[in-house]
Design brief:
Layout (H helix, E strand, L loop, with lengths): L14 H10 L1 E5 L2 E9 L7 E5 L8 H18 L4 H6 L2 E9 L7 H20 L6 E2 L5 E2 L1
Parallel strand pairs: 3-4
Antiparallel strand pairs: 1-2, 2-4, 5-6
Length: 143
């Protein structure tokens, strides 16, 4: 995939994948963003998938939620190069859900800085080793 555009294959839209992400994912915070991350191994070079959530409880107007969602998407689009090569070099991909936590609409600069911190944390987490629990013969997870 060339350029900076976002492709359909980068959207996290499968209900089972989203449920698995929130059930087994790791939580990371860089205010005003929170990320739920699940690192998966892949051999085919699949793209990192993401989704964005702006809760109605935090931002009451639809116009505000859309504005924040666009700012988060743009920050991810421009900064995903911090994550993709580092994951690809170790044969992993990530499913990420970005959740907005602030009650007011943040500036793009604030969201961009938080996105850079989160993507660096995610890449470091993936490089730290196998993030998944290994299974023993009885199916019990061990650390």
């Amino acid at each position: 995939m060339k350029g900076n555009r976002l492709y359909k294959c980068e959207k996290l839209c499968s209900r089972t994948a989203i449920n698995g992400l929130f059930a087994d994912g790791r939580n990371m915070v860089a205010y005003p963003l929170r990320a739920m991350v699940a690192i998966k191994t892949c051999d085919d070079g699949a793209a990192t998938r993401f989704m964005i959530t702006v809760p109605k409880k935090k931002i009451r107007t639809a116009v505000g939620r859309v504005l924040v969602r666009r700012r988060i998407r743009e920050a991810y689009r421009l900064n995903r190069a911090l994550l993709s090569p580092r994951l690809g070099s170790i044969g992993n991909r990530a499913d990420i859900a970005f959740i907005y936590m602030d009650k007011s609409i943040a500036t793009y600069a604030t969201i961009d800085a938080a996105m850079k911190v989160l993507l660096d944390k995610i890449a470091s987490y993936a490089e730290a080793g196998n993030p998944h629990k290994e299974q023993d013969n009885n199916g019990n997870g061990t650390d």
